[in-house]
Write a structure and sequence with these properties.
461 residues; 57% helix
Length: 461
């Protein structure tokens, strides 16, 4: 036997269990019939019978033995989760028909003077019962095969009686026996049709159950991903003397890979990160969680920001799936002297609004996304020195590239315009203005990327 390779294992296992019940009942009936026939044969040893009687009894015994093997075979298949070849199912149907056929021949040999009793015996009903039981397979082809095998078995016994029993040569060539053959054949066709209808309904129910299971699993995964994503941004931003901070994120789907993070370094400075993990859904959230954990551990491990990002790249390259990488801005803020070092990796640009000059200074990307290349080349960190009222805008590509219903992007200039208007307000008001501008611009248009922004503003006084 080979391992299961099926589209619907639940349905297949149900069929095997039905067959175990069916073959077990058939085995018990065949065994009882064999015992009764054997007892009658030995009880009539004084009566002269031909060798055909014992041959039929032996054939019936072989059928019982084969049925026992088949029953054990089915039980093993269920226990070991194995598949049953189509040839074995066909063989089982032919084996079933041999039981009543052997019984017919045994009755013909045990009472040769009255073959009509054999041809009208309960063995004929046994054929019909086996055809009906074949519907448990829910396989129309097997039901039709059962009908063909039953009609062939009955026809062979009838023709044998006509050919070997003298009285039957003239008395039993009647349409009634031919009609029995045709009824058994038709019974197989009807059973096949009924099995097909039942199979459709069982398949529909099984499909519905599997869909419910899949939906429940998906809902659990989404709930877990949402909880994980919430944990990435649930911590309140720290209060840093001389600076004001606020942040906002929005996922394009139920869950997303954009996040912002902060951490305190050993020397009292503040680490800041805004990142965009490629993709959407559960995978991107898991990638974001890994990136956050690695970032906190590695970026806090030494004073050289560029070397730390290179190390982070190596860890993410080895950990994330091949199709995943991370665009990120990560830096260290020194609040005492009002400066910040920043690496922009495949992201950006980093925009800093110079309040005194009422203009923007743009800091472009210094290298590829993290976790994309084995040997990336990152430039020296950007060094930003804040004046009173200056605003650093750490923003993901999704926000600049979000589109309206006409496919037009929000763009960097619209974001700059919003910041200019609200630059005198708090960091929270600037974030609120940017998010409202993005949402009003996009309207109900679906977005393909997540949105995230972090505002860092130097206090005026």
């Amino acid at each position: 036997m080979r391992q299961f390779a099926m589209e619907d294992p639940l349905s297949e296992v149900a069929k095997l269990r039905n067959e175990r019940l069916r073959s077990g009942v058939v085995l018990v009936i065949f065994a009882l019939v064999f015992v009764v026939c054997a007892a009658n044969s030995f009880a009539s040893l004084g009566i002269r019978h031909g060798g055909g009687l014992w041959l039929c009894l032996a054939l019936l015994g072989v059928v019982v033995a084969c049925q026992t093997i088949w029953f054990a075979y089915i039980r093993r298949a269920i226990a070991a989760n194995l598949a049953i070849p189509a040839a074995a199912w066909n063989g089982a149907m032919l084996l079933d028909s041999l039981g009543p056929t052997s019984l017919l021949f045994w009755q013909l040999e045990s009472n040769p003077d009255m073959p009509e009793n054999a041809l009208a015996s309960p063995a004929l009903l046994a054929f019909l019962l086996l055809i009906s039981a074949s519907m448990l397979h829910l396989n129309p082809a097997l039901c039709r095969l059962a009908g063909v095998a039953a009609s062939a078995g009955y026809a062979s016994a009838w023709l044998y009686a006509v050919a070997t029993k003298p009285l039957a040569q003239t008395t039993y060539v009647r349409p009634a026996y031919l009609l029995c053959v045709l009824l058994l054949l038709a019974g197989g066709q009807v059973a096949g049709w009924v099995a097909a209808q039942i199979g459709k309904r069982v398949a529909a129910v099984a499909s519905g159950v599997q869909a419910q299971i899949a939906r429940a699993q998906a809902e659990n995964e989404v709930a877990l991903a949402q909880s994980l994503q919430q944990s990435l941004t649930s911590e309140a931003l720290p209060e840093v003397e001389g600076f004001d901070m606020a942040a906002w994120t929005r996922s394009a789907s139920v869950t997303g890979g954009d996040y912002f993070d902060w951490y305190s370094t050993d020397d009292g400075r503040l680490g800041l990160t805004v990142a965009d993990v490629a993709g959407h859904g559960v995978g991107s959230v898991i990638g974001a969680a890994l990136c956050r954990a690695f970032s906190r551990a590695i970026l806090n491990d030494g004073p050289d920001l560029r070397c730390a990002v290179v190390r982070l790249n190596r860890f993410l390259l080895e950990t994330l799936p091949a199709e995943q990488y991370v665009r990120m801005m990560t830096g260290i803020l020194d609040a005492e002297d009002g400066s910040m070092e920043m690496i922009v990796a495949g992201h950006g640009p980093l925009m800093v609004y110079l309040s005194a000059e009422k203009r923007f200074r743009i800091y472009d990307s210094q290298g590829p996304p993290v976790g994309l290349l084995a040997k990336p080349n990152y430039g020296l960190p950007h060094r930003v020195r804040f004046g009173p009222g200056d605003v650093a805008v750490l923003i993901t590509d999704g926000l600049i590239g979000c589109t309206n219903s006409e496919g037009e992007e929000l763009g960097q200039e619209r974001v700059k315009h919003t910041i200019r208007i609200h630059a005198q307000g708090s960091a929270a008001s600037i974030v609120s203005a940017i998010s409202e501008a993005a949402l009003q611009f996009t309207g109900s248009a679906p977005q393909s990327d997540d949105l995230a922004v972090l505002i860092l503003k130097r206090s005026v006084a």
